[in-house]
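Practice problem 4.
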């Protein structure tokens, strides 16, 4: 049995999909939280690519959110066995990460007091939602999963991000009924339901409160 140690900052962001996948596959793991304000800059050198999340697998660093989640899904039988299906699922993953790039820009702009850039980046994120979510919607099968008859790590990954974005742009997921069903199906898994109740509150850096003006949201 492999040992897993997740190292990530005191945020949800790119660490949350990894947490959800780890919980759904049901393996034991520990998490080391790095304070984004007080520790990150002095510890960044510890990581080969200078970024987190990192999953320590038997003591070896595994980098990048998507790589980590795909490894866990395939290792623990929560993945499609078909290469073409997996490849098309990865389109969705990469599109969601396009959203995280612009959203990260809005968060950084707020931190440094650049209100114009904050509004611009939040608006860019909101503008991308219809394209990204409509493409996810078109890939959801009658069983409620993305290009699959049963749940895969991709569904868990997507639901984790939709959970985060629903807090920034309330109602945006509900405009895409199948996406909303997917999100709720995963949220209703007992281990995810428990995690959502017990997880730490938002770190001030990524707190949704006040980040997006009403005119910037997809409401």
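Answer key:
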């Amino acid at each position: 049995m492999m040992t897993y140690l997740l190292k990530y900052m005191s945020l949800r962001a790119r660490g949350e999909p990894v947490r959800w996948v780890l919980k759904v596959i049901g393996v034991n793991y520990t998490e080391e939280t790095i304070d984004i304000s007080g520790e990150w800059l002095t510890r960044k050198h510890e990581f080969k690519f200078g970024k987190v999340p990192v999953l320590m697998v038997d003591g070896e660093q595994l980098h990048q959110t998507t790589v980590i989640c795909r490894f866990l899904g395939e290792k623990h039988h929560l993945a499609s066995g078909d290469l073409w299906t997996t490849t098309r699922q990865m389109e969705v993953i990469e599109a969601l990460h396009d959203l995280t790039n612009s959203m990260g820009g809005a968060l950084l702009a707020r931190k440094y007091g650049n209100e114009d850039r904050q509004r611009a980046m939040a608006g860019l994120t909101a503008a991308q939602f219809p394209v990204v979510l409509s493409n996810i919607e078109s890939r959801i099968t009658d069983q409620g999963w993305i290009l699959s008859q049963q749940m895969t790590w991709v569904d868990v990954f997507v639901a984790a991000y939709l959970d985060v974005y629903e807090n920034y742009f309330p109602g945006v997921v509900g405009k895409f009924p199948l996406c909303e069903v997917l999100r709720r199906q995963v949220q209703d898994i007992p281990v995810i339901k428990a995690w959502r109740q017990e997880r730490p509150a938002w770190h001030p850096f990524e707190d949704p409160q006040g980040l997006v003006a009403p005119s910037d949201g997809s409401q």
